[in-house]
Design brief:
Layout: H1 6-11, H2 13-16, H3 22-31, E1 33-37, H4 41-53, E2 57-61, H5 86-97, E3 102-106, H6 115-119, E4 124-127, H7 132-144, E5 148-155, E6 158-164, H8 175-178, H9 190-193, H10 197-215, E7 224-229, E8 234-239
Helix pairs in contact: 4-5, 4-10
Bound molecules: zinc ion.
């Protein structure tokens, strides 16, 4: 396990002084490994906050280039970055936040063919994509390979977030249990729906927070949907049930 240095003690002092974290919690955060799929509004926020928290192994995956209309919400990107690949620029930016971390990036889109090679060594997969095709693919991979999946979706002022471990415990649902009939070609992109900076940022923050809760062994509920209405700031939770006929996770 990584030795906590004097530098770490100072940098992460405000986390380490929390009883539920301490030095051992900070070490758990450092040795955790997270794959962030999609470097848009959700992904940039997740990457920023997990690297500030001290996560030591991160891969960023996105085949898109940065465009001007991304800049209202995709934190860490600036006008100078337009035209460059999102994962590459984000990797460069978060390396400045956490220089001793191992930060990798992948400029290709995840497919069923390349997925195993790219994300195999990461234990937490954070789905920050904006289409059902990728979400269903990632869900299947996470179930079959016993990965923790943290997913979120944004629509105007509404945020949905989940943490799944469908392979762990017989009642835990997977993403497909909740959305059994989605069409893989259906788009849920911010480009078509509209989104504000705080809503995108909050969605990513909820995902980052769920990841930290899991890393620190807090009591994580793998059977709930978290809903946040950003106009009223009301939060609701819905208990999710495993679909016993689910094509992905039924026994
Ligand atoms: Zn399922």
């Amino acid at each position: 396990m990584k030795k906590i240095t004097k530098y770490d003690l100072e940098k992460y002092s405000r986390q380490i002084i929390i009883d539920k974290i301490g030095i051992s919690g900070q070490q758990k955060i450092y040795k955790s490994s997270v794959a962030i799929v999609g470097c848009g509004g959700l992904g940039t926020s997740v990457a920023q906050y997990l690297s500030m928290s001290g996560v030591g192994n991160i891969i960023l995956i996105d085949d898109d280039e940065i465009i001007l209309s991304n800049l209202n919400r995709q934190t860490l990107f600036t006008e100078k970055d337009i035209g460059n690949n999102k994962s590459k620029i984000l990797a460069f930016k978060i390396k400045k936040i956490h220089p001793t971390a191992k930060i990798e990036y992948e400029e290709n889109k995840l497919t069923s063919k390349n997925m195993d090679k790219i994300i195999k060594k990461f234990s937490i997969i954070i789905d920050c994509t904006d289409n059902f095709e990728s979400r269903l693919l990632i869900n299947k991979y996470c179930h079959n390979n016993k990965k923790i999946l943290i997913s979120a979706a944004l629509q105007n002022f509404d945020i949905q977030a989940f943490i799944f471990a469908s392979w762990k415990g017989k009642d835990n649902p997977c993403y497909k249990c909740i959305f059994p009939n989605v069409n893989k070609n259906e788009s849920i992109s911010c480009d078509e729906m509209g989104i504000t900076a705080p809503v995108a940022g909050l969605g990513g923050l909820i995902q980052a927070n769920l990841a930290i809760n899991y890393i620190l062994n807090f009591d994580v509920n793998f059977k709930e949907l978290i809903l946040l209405d950003c106009t009223s700031l009301n939060t609701r939770k819905i208990i999710l049930k495993k679909n016993l006929k689910c094509k992905i996770c039924r026994k």
